[in-house]
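Question: Hello, beginner here. Any chance you could explain the protein record under this note? Any guidance would be welcome.
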Amino acid sequence: MPTTFEPISRERPFYTVAELADALGVTIYTIREWIKQDRFPGAINLSGQTGYRIPAEDLNRFSARVAAKALLKEAAARTYPEIDEG
């Protein structure tokens, strides 16, 4: 079951790059690369003043996709165990 991330506040339901990196356990450089790859389509660039803001719903969609991929990989390993051995 994917983790649901709550907005930082109801008035400002966005995460900074550093907050997102901390929540996902990756570096800020990884988050910035993922933003460039459009993995967080709602990311807002504040013109270099304070960096990007990523909506909580983008984080939730991303974590759901990651969880789904992990479940599919796990199911494939159970169905086709010889794939894991190679």
Q: What stands out?
A: The chain is about 55% helix and 10% strand.
